Every structure is written in structure tokens, then in C-alpha cells.
Amino acid sequence: MQSALSENDVSGAVIDSAMRIHQALGPGLLESAYERVLAYELRKRGFDVETQVAVPLRYEHVLIEEGFRADIIVNGLVLVELKSVEKLSPVHKKQVLTYLKLTGIRLGLLINFGEALLKDGVVRVANGMS
After folding, report:
1. How many domains does one find in the chain?
2. Of 15, 45, 55, 82, whose CB neighbour count within 10 A is largest?
3. Residue 2, domain member (yes or no)
4. Residue 19 resides in a domain
């Protein structure tokens, strides 16, 4: 594991990996396929990668054991939400921000592999970072 890296270092590696994958595979696959390949690529680079992480949600006095599933969490520092849609919607960014608040993670990446150019489908979402 590459523990001395910052959120920005990790997010840069995630974006670089996603760009390579998109270049090799193109758009149009299922989100789950991109998730598996991205996890493989990041692990190959030495990162600690968790996929489909169940995150609990507390509402009043009720604990919901699985409020949502984070697609990928890298080194415990960066939450990655993947999409494979024609265009991102504003609700997708709001979703990532909510996920960040619930996990306490400060940096999220929303990556849409459905874009013709992946650079148009990468959104950085910060929670409490300058």
C-alpha cells in the first residue's frame, strides 16, 4: 500500500488509470466492467482498493447497515463513483457529495466512462477541502 500519498496523489493515479482504461476499451461497457478493470489497474499500481463497500447510514436512532455502496475507495482517501451513461446529470455530483459526507472522506471522483472523451466525464468533488 502507498500510505504516504495525499488525496491529490491518489486521485491523480485514479484519473490516469481511468484514462488508460478508456483509451484501451472505449465507452459502452457496463459500469461493473469498468469497476473491475479500474480496481485491477489500481491494485497493480500498489494501491489499497476496496470495491462495493457497504456504508451504513444513521437516521435519528435507526442504523441502516447498508445505506449505499461505494463503488471504489482507494487507500481510504478517495471515493470513486463510476457511471457509464451518455451524459452526467447534476444529481450524480450531489450523490457523490452525500457519499463523502456519510463516509467522512474528503475527496471523491465521479467518472463517466460513457463519454466519448473521458476528460469530459471526470468530476472532482471535495468535502471540506480547500
Report:
1. 1
2. 82
3. no
4. yes
